Amino acid sequence: MTATDPAMTALAQSWCALSLLHSRIEQHLERELQKHHGLSVREYSLLDVLSRQHDGEGGHLQMKQVADAVVLSQSATTRLVTRLEDRGLLVRYLCPTDRRGIYTNVSEAGMRLLEESRPTNNEALRGALDDAAEVPELAPLVSTVETLQAESPAATSD
What we know:
Helix content is 68%, strand content 6%. The chain is mainly α. It is globular, with a radius of gyration of 19 Å. The relative contact order is 0.13.
């Protein structure tokens, strides 16, 4: 395949459309979360991921797992955790069975903020997807996202 191969050109165009959709959604979420709750998209994502931990086996995430879930490097995730801990939204403590391990949990204040910001996040996401559906290049991707959401186990268990 060459750089001018129609299949590669179509693939590159599809990738650009996906990147554009992601960027538009993230910018919309960022504006709304900042305006209403003083949270960035990454901060919201981190609180959301950590709020899903539990005390059972495998219930606490290692920093690498958290970093993968919020799509940041481990060092950027550690800095983000520290920032949210300084704001009183997270707490760190030693693992009771392995003193070398450090757990991070969402504090009561963090849970309140997360619960307050969830409707904003959901409404902003819906609005961003609705806006993107009006753009011909993005409409098929929006449709795919909505199909994935409709087929997810969480959506069917509600």
